[in-house]
UniProtKB/TrEMBL annotation:
GO terms for molecular function: beta-glucosidase activity. It comes from the Bacteria. One of its GO terms (cellular component) is cytosol. Its EC number is 3.2.1.21. This is Beta-glucosidase. It catalyses: Hydrolysis of terminal, non-reducing beta-D-glucosyl residues with release of beta-D-glucose. The keyword Electron transport does not apply. GO terms for biological process: cellulose catabolic process. Belongs to the glycosyl hydrolase 1 family. The keyword Hydrolase applies. The active site is at E173 (proton donor), E355 (nucleophile). Substrate binds at Q27, H128, N172, Y298, W402, E409, W410. InterPro entries: GH, GH_1_N_CS, Glyco_hydro_1, Glyco_hydro_1_AS, Glyco_hydro_1_beta-glucosidase.
């Protein structure tokens, strides 16, 4: 076990609170085969019949690739101070290694410059699930070499954008894309193999550490982090096998990445399972100093023992008394408060909430408006819970709504709408929802007021 003191960028009392919005490349960009972009594992997965609701794909999505200026204008009018987005690795490096695609790099130049002109800070995430298919053909994250290909990709991004971008995240929700992609089903690459799953966990961790070192060495004044989806794992019933399953799932979902990256060891429940894949020096390579902890949170998880997947854990039901979103996710803001307190204490880093929100069956009314009172109530309650955590000592420095736009919601296709801006997928039209205007009012109400000349 090794322990490293985290790098820090500012005392909590000196750091202004950041309001923002988040998106990801595959979910909004479209232009899946334009301007030299290579295919990703999600392009491939979406073409397998029955994988995605209604057989939807991200081929067009929100057409952000062509309409980014409109989307930046929406953010500017909203008043956010920051925008978390991801770069599509196969757009800038079609085969994941070797030759780069200048047209793809130039797209992110245009986006970053537009954000800066609008006085919105770009927060760049290197990886939000769209691995180049060429690397998937070589085993993807189950191949140890992928960690080193990722470091080379990080260097490409750092050299290209590090003069303008200072906030970088290595990965978004590593637990999600490894668990769903390699054992539980529902996401690319659609494999069910426990050995490949454990290898993928370790190799993603290696990739994170290598990328942190690359970014630190190449970007002056870089502020570096990673985005974890932390959600309490609760037993769906009091049965002993369900309690055991929930504990195991907690180790995989909440600990398999954050603990080795920040504490220098894998969780005890899975440490022996990970041991075969750990080479000398690996843990030191993984556990690198970072500046902040990115937290995604939607709800607690209710788990049960389940024989039909390689780790023996499956989804259970929340208590009947717990309200749910249209996605069926429990609404429990107290769990958000407790998670913020836990993360802040356990890892000792400033926390930025980089995804929080809910899905709704939003529609345009006869006046051309989109009213989403349930989303507003959700945001009120969760931001209230965040403020309770801050009052109790959690070092939370920012909150980003998921998501700016309705978008391609992975295996659910376009059936779930998370945006505070409605997207008509047939035309691409954007319509700010009532929640967009509510969030704009909140940002204005909490903005620091300039000192008067007399003060």
């Amino acid at each position: 076990m090794i322990t490293r003191a985290p790098a820090t960028v500012a005392a909590a009392s000196d750091a202004p609170f950041v309001w923002g919005v988040s998106t990801s490349s595959y979910q909004i960009e479209g232009a899946a085969a334009e301007d030299g972009k290579g295919p990703s594992i999600w392009d491939t997965y979406c073409r397998q019949p029955g994988r995605i609701t209604d057989n939807d794909t991200g081929d067009v999505a929100c057409d952000h690739y062509h309409r980014y200026a409109e989307d930046v204008a929406l953010m500017k009018a909203l008043g956010v101070g920051a925008y978390r987005f991801s770069v599509a690795w196969p757009r800038v490096q079609p085969k994941g290694r070797g030759a780069v695609n200048e047209a793809g790099l130039a797209f992110y130049d245009r986006l970053i410059d537009a954000l800066l002109e609008a006085r919105i800070e770009p927060w760049l995430c290197l990886y939000h699930w769209d691995l180049p298919q060429a690397l998937g053909d070589l085993g993807g994250w189950a191949n140890r070499d992928c960690a080193f290909w990722f470091a080379d990709y990080a260097a490409l991004i750092a050299r290209r954008y590090g003069d303008r971008v200072k906030r970088f995240a290595t990965f978004n929700e590593s637990s999600v894309f490894t668990l769903f992609g390699f054992v539980m089903g529902g996401q690319a690459p659609g494999i069910a193999d426990r050995t490949m799953f454990h290898r993928a966990i370790h190799h993603v961790n290696l990739a994170h550490g290598g990328a942190i070192d690359v970014l630190r060495s190449l970007v002056k004044d870089a502020s570096l982090g990673i985005v974890h989806n932390i959600q309490p794992s609760r037993a769906a019933t009091p049965a002993a096998e369900d309690v055991k399953a929930a504990a195991l799932f907690d180790a995989y979902w909440n600990g398999a990445f954050a603990d080795p990256q920040l504490l220098g060891h894998y969780p005890a429940l899975i440490a022996d399972l990970m041991e075969p894949w750990i080479a000398a020096g690996d843990i030191a390579r993984i556990c690198r100093p970072i500046d902040w902890f990115g937290l995604n949170h939607y709800s607690p998880l209710y788990m049960r023992a389940f024989d039909d997947n390689p780790i023996g854990v499956g989804w259970g039901a929340a208590p009947d008394s717990v309200p749910r979103t249209s996605f069926g996710w429990p609404i429990e803001p107290d769990a958000f408060r407790d998670t913020l307190l836990h993360v802040s204490k356990r890892y000792g880093l400033p926390v930025y909430v980089l995804e929080n929100g809910r899905s709704n069956p939003d529609v345009v009314d006869e006046k051309g408006a989109v009213n989403d009172p349930d989303r507003i109530e959700f945001l009120k309650s969760y931001i209230g819970a965040m403020n309770q955590a801050r009052a109790a000592g959690a070092d939370v420095r920012g909150y980003f709504v998921w998501s700016l736009l309705d978008n391609f919601e992975w295996s659910s296709g376009f059936s779930q709408r998370f945006g505070i801006v409605y997207v008509d997928y047939a035309t691409g039209q954007r319509i700010p929802k009532a929640s967009y205007h509510w969030y704009a009012d909140l940002i204005r109400a909490t903005a620091p007021r300039p000192h008067s000349a007399a003060s």
